[in-house]
Amino acid sequence: MLLHTVNKSPFQHAALGSCLRLSKDGSAILLIEDGVYGALKDTKISADIENAMKTKKVYALEPDIKARGVQDRVLDGITLIDYAGFVDLAAENKAVEAWL
Amino acid sequence: MLLHTVNKSPFQHAALGSCLRLSKDGSAILLIEDGVYGALKDTKISADIENAMKTKKVYALEPDIKARGVQDRVLDGITLIDYAGFVDLAAENKAVEAWL
Amino acid sequence: MSEEMMEEGGGGVIKKFCYINRKAPYGTIYALESLEVVLIGAAFEQDVSVVFADDGIYQLTKGQDTAGIEMKNFSPTYRALEMYDVEKLYVEKESLEERGMTADDLIVPVEVLSSAQLQDLMEDQDVVLSF
Amino acid sequence: MSEEMMEEGGGGVIKKFCYINRKAPYGTIYALESLEVVLIGAAFEQDVSVVFADDGIYQLTKGQDTAGIEMKNFSPTYRALEMYDVEKLYVEKESLEERGMTADDLIVPVEVLSSAQLQDLMEDQDVVLSF
Amino acid sequence: MKFGILVSEGPYTHQAADSAYLFTKAALEKGHEIYRIFFYHDGVNNGTRLTTPPQDERHIVNRWSELAEKHKLDLVVCVAAAQRRGIVDADEAKRNGKDGDNLAPGFRISGLGQLVEAGIQCERLVTFGD
Amino acid sequence: MKFGILVSEGPYTHQAADSAYLFTKAALEKGHEIYRIFFYHDGVNNGTRLTTPPQDERHIVNRWSELAEKHKLDLVVCVAAAQRRGIVDADEAKRNGKDGDNLAPGFRISGLGQLVEAGIQCERLVTFGD
Lengths: 100, 100, 131, 131, 130, 130
Description:
The complex is a heterohexamer, with two copies of chain A, two copies of chain C and two copies of chain E. Chain A is α/β, with parallel strands linked by helices. Chain A has a single domain (2-99), classed as 3-Layer(aba) Sandwich (Hypothetical Protein Ychn, Chain: A), CATH 3.40.1260.10. In chain A, 31% of the residues lie in helices and 22% in strands. In chain A, strands 4-3-2-1-5 form a five-stranded parallel β-sheet. By secondary structure, chain C is an alpha/beta fold. Chain C has one domain (13-130): 3-Layer(aba) Sandwich (Hypothetical Protein Ychn, Chain: A). Chain C has helices at 2-10, 30-41, 76-80, 93-98, 115-123, and strands spanning 16-21, 47-52, 88-92, 111-113, 127-130. A five-stranded parallel β-sheet of chain C has the order 4-3-2-1-5. Chain C starts with a helix and ends with a strand. Chain E has helices spanning 16-29, 60-71, 79-85, 90-95, 113-121, and strands spanning 2-7, 33-39, 75-78, 107-110, 124-128. In chain E, helix 2 links the parallel strand 2 and strand 3 (75-78). Chains in contact: A-B, A-C, A-D, A-F, B-C, B-D, B-E, C-E, C-F, D-E, D-F, E-F. Chains E and F meet through helix 3 of E and helix 3 of F.
């Protein structure tokens, strides 16, 4: 499967939406940089990501989460990883697609 | 009144939506650069801009429209202007707010 | 430097300056470089308002810890704005709500305005700088 | 140059390369610089697919006239891709529909794929380059 | 009328620098005054003389330099933004121990105060960015 | 495993350069090979030695140079993208009649083919951009 990375805020950019529409069930999605705002609960896009989590595995980069002070708001079921975990995900998947 | 400029595609960015939400009735909105995709008919955001045109005056920069090959798709009621017209709009309004 | 600038720049004129922050911190540099303009601008003794809307409200989130991305955490600087007499900080209510946040989640005291109130505030400005 | 590169780079391996274009032309340079990669990449004789989705489909709009913005109109170059044996051009149906467009509005013949078909196509790639 | 221009993105990558240039030219043709053009964020990259774009593309940096010479424009590159991005004039290079400089003719490096001052002095401040 | 890295944005303005650096460091620490780091679009601005960021900020350019020296990394700046944006080495400067150069230690300027070749040679190509 592909690893999909999203680095844009879902409130400002359509990148996360495009990634959810064009990634296959079973694939992994990693939220990094401003993309981590997509990992939070009680936002207007939380339902979209919760829905995606039924068929895809969603990760968020913890250093980016902490930098933005949102560590207490992460949705249940999202896996937090560090850069080493990012490297592992890239290695485990067949290729990496960046939703820029 | 303020002149509002929007230079982002409404399909990729939330800038046009923020501008419509936060600009006063009666103000002028000028679509430039990739923002001109917001001036087109038959798109998924056409209704939003038509709705805004009931209370605000919407302009689009014709050189940007032509560059993108969309001159035949512009919504009725949107005024096309050139850079000289942009200068006039900036001069006529009290200040210019760029929705970056 | 600031006195010379005042002489050269101000000339007694006081304008309403509005800085509008709509972008999240760290993903791009606009938030930090916007703050640098506000701090320098304070020396000019204009009538300054700073607005946070859309992702700009994330600039003010409490508990930022940037060690893991090796960047400088500049959020404490917003607390210093008061010392520079930059006291009018506004946050859009709709932007907070969309993000499930309240003013209590922010690092500095702000005035929460509705979109309509913010429209009025911005319409009243002489100079609008967007970041 | 290309022969030396082939020697050095290819080594007989043929990979599935997918270039994904999701940005409009002229507002930013990504569309143009993506096209430059596709052209250079053609010399490596890999199995190349070029995908246009989201605003990327605007790269292929007919009738572009850039004289008024003093930029170079690079859209005719897409027509030249065939000469470089880059023949697999795909456009997402949903992206066309959201913009009120059809394949007839585009400067080159393309294959229109649904989101589901595009998912399969991308999942089948060895290397994905996004612009 | 007295205009100030803020350019917030670098050349070629975003259209902002092009739009700012064409707006400035149109304003000058209409007889307006351009009090200052301030380059901030990646906009400072408009001010390097080391660019060599392809022959068939516009030369954004030279275009600014030529417009500045013709109309005696004040092109100001923000020093703090420039230091982060490697845009330096001879003085800055000496001060920071750099072995070269790259500022293009017609540009000068100065502080952010010049942007605020332009906001005060100009009747309109127009921003081009991303 | 053999990784290639593509950096598409300049330093400081976007986080892409930081993310790419921290990913690269983590991959090296895990014993992976970094075959090449390719700088394209505004990413070429990672390769100028004229930057002087504030003392309390990370020095993105020096950080790349140091990592490259330590791990013998191949840092390649795209020549076409670099020419548009004013990044030149001594050879390029001579060829294009420029009076200076600014490429940082550890970087080299080469063609876009180096990106495609990295895609062929590497088991994974990871892109950091905007």
